[in-house]
Amino acid sequence: MPWFKSVNKLKISQLLFVSHLILVLWLVFTMTYNRYRSEWETGITHAVSNARSSSNAIIDLVSPSAAGLNYTNVKLDSSLKLYAAAEKLIYFSVDAISDFSSTPFAFAYLRKPELVWKTHNQEQDIAQQEAKIEQFKRRLLADDADKVKLTFLMGRAQERLLRFYMDMNHERQYGPLFPLPNIAPDDYLLLPDKQQLVLHLALRNRHQGSIYLFFDAQHLYQLQRDIRWQLFKEALTAVLFSVILIAWATWWIVRPLKRLAGNMSAHLKDIDVSQLSELERDDELGVLARRFKSLVERAQGQMVELEQRSELDALTQLGSRFYFNACSEDYVSQAKRAQQCVGFLICDLDNFKAYNDSLGHPEGDKVLRRVGLCIQSTMKRETDKAFRLGGEEFVVLLQTHQVNDIQPIAVQLCQQLEGLEIPHPQNAPFEVVTMSIGIGFVNAENLRHLNSIDQIYEVADQALYRAKAAGRNAIELTEWTPAST
């Protein structure tokens, strides 16, 4: 297809336009979100401002009533009309102290049903009022009692007691529906679960006091939903458009780069650069792929040559430490499959530093070559492997049918080296070059539980330490078991 061929000819420099476009889309999304925040905060500010304006007339009415402890004033029909005129007001609660008697003044208003009640009544108030009524009843029984006056006073007391009961009932019924939140004076709080706006304002009497006003905020949350829906539509449009661009860029640029990166992260000898489809491309990715192919092929050739050189220790012709690290785990896996026992021998020349210090390193190198030949002559089977780990330390790996076959090989190594009678005056009491051997071995049954060659290496190293401590030219064995880990 002509259009697809034209796309194939696009250069990475041209694709920068796509990245810039995605950035623009992100900026559009960010600006849309910021507009949402701005409109939402503006809506809140407007709602709070309206609520404060509606509250001023109520505070003007309640403040002098609180100062004079005048409950009658706050229950008048005109007062109820004033409360009802406050737009979206649902409920308010007043808590103040009288300016003249330091008596608490507290009441609440609920729009539906239209109720005003005291909120600070206690059971003891009812008890006192009931006691007063009983007192009036007893006084009425007296012969000289002013029955008209006492009857009037007792009626007043009974009305007050009834109001106490009604107020307490209203508080129990409606008070829990409007728990007062912890808001600083002259501040507000939105209650999303109830869709309410709560203001905490101060009264204007001398002892002040406070009023909590609950307003219906459903319109505010409807505004929030409208803003979010608009934001969602705009963001969805931007995201869909961006996904299309990203998918295209991924197909044409990112995916080939990932393939190249994946090849780079693989082991060098496992990379097959001949299969890279990017080699046929005419753009910068094609140039990169071809140069990568050239670099890998050159590095693979050098690696083959280096591995051939590094597998052998140049001085002793035994396996090198590099070769030991590369093949030791496979050696254990092979023994597991063959259901063999494994022996791990760490051989260390005794007092060899003193030999080098007294006779010189060239003479020491000659001894190391002879030790290498000695170890090679002891290795009879195809599965026997020997390595020089460094300095005067050697490792021998053995596979045997029985664990009892391992120690004789170590004894033969020690005896054969001692039999060379290489003079070593600093190695008393033997006066010749000797070695100590630490053996770690594991039988075929336990070998199944061995997770790493390092586990048996550790027990062999501990055995070597004991051999040195025993006077050198000695052999110590330690069996590895799962409990050794």
From TrEMBL:
The keyword Transmembrane applies. The chain crosses the membrane at residues 12-29, 235-254. Keywords: Membrane, Transmembrane, Transmembrane helix. Its EC number is 2.7.7.65. It catalyses: 2 GTP = 3',3'-c-di-GMP + 2 diphosphate. The keyword Protein transport does not apply. Residues 340-480 form the GGDEF domain. NCBIfam families: GGDEF. This is diguanylate cyclase.
